[in-house]
Specification:
Largest sheet: 4 strands, mixed
Number of strands: 26
Shape: elongated
Structural class: alpha/beta
Helix content: 25-40%
Bound molecules: uridine-diphosphate-N-acetylglucosamine
Strand order of the largest sheet: 23-25-1-26
Length: 420
Amino acid sequence: MDKICVRGGRPLSGDIVIGGAKNASLPLMAAGMLTDERLTLTNVPVLADIATMTALIAQHGVAVESQGNDSRTLSIGGAITNTEAPYDIVRKMRASILVLGPLLARVGEARVSLPGGCAIGTRPIDLHLKGLEQMGAVIRLDAGYVNATAPSGLRGAAIVLPFASVGATENIVMAATLADGQTVLANAAREPEIGDLVACLISMGARIEGAGTDRLVIEGVTKLHAATHEIVADRIETATFACATAIAGGSVRLLGGRLEHLGAVVDIMGQAGVEITQDGNALVVRRLNGLHGVDVMTAPYPGFPTDVQAQFMALMAVAEGASMLTENIFENRFMHVPELTRMGANINVHGSSAIVRGVSRLSGAQVMATDLRASVSLILAGLAAHGETTVNRVYHLDRGYEAVERKLAACGADIERVAG
Ligand code: UD1
């Protein structure tokens, strides 16, 4: 398996192109199953998770085609001939559950493997299932599968999510677009990826109000039609490169980055001593003087994203003073801590909080990570470390970051991928 080798100590300077958001692309690809016409998505990132979603949709019988040599443009659509999402694909990627709503809405039945636990926590799907049941789906769990039917179609319902789950919001909204009548979804998640999904569904003919708010009102229609949609820039990739610039020092322009999608990240980074400003179509990130410890709690958007917690912890590991990072979204998302500790970080975990006492220098080491954001946090730590850091098992990294080593190397980092 490939490795990434980083030799720390070089400030970053230059431009980095921010790709389309993985977490917007996955539900948008599933949305392509809502119509027998073509949904064309542009600015799709080239990632392992996109390949997994392509395989899943294709085995439902729906064509997913890239346009010529342009693998960033995908066109999806056609008849659904198979309603089973098998364990072998779902176990690779939890977002596979996003086909459940579209399958039920379009053909009234679905058999989707339960995603099960994953490294960062148990991650149940009860909110997806309860919402769909309220819309008339009959759901039975059997042999590790969700068996769902809606023999007389889905109908609109008043649904209140007890927690603003991103995936449950997406599944329910997609299902509601083709349901009979009105669905009101309260306490909906407000992540920019959901705004992107809603915008695309509207361009496919869906009737949805409340985009960007926690109350979505969807009037079901009988059919959705062809559309073309450009995927929104990845705010997590943006925040990751902002952390990279902060930890390495220097100044970088993040092309396509959008300040309004960063939520609490801008203010927290400001308190830590990192300036992020919008300059036309780019964000300019600059480390001012020293880095300072800041307390952070992860929260649903616009709060500080759980998907940036590991990267920010790498930053706090070399900041002046102490910081407390509290993880409120996933119960087991500190697997990067022992690896950062091996690089010389001073971190103690107490329940869902980590106390980070900044050290003046990290040292390079052999490390490995068991999830996507943890992997990239180790690369970031490597940028600040003395000597060489080797990040093993970059399989996780490739699920969600496209060419991270090339983007950093182009800004002056001493980093390379070593084929294994
Ligand atoms: C999405 C993102 C992921 C991000 C997360 C939180 C995608 C493909 N993935 O994941 O990168 O970290 O949002 O911002 O967009 N929960 C339940 N029952 C449910 C659903 C969720 O208890 O039915 C819990 C989860 O266990 C977790 C919390 O709610 O503790 C948040 O999960 P959710 O917002 O659903 O995250 P995902 O959609 O899985």
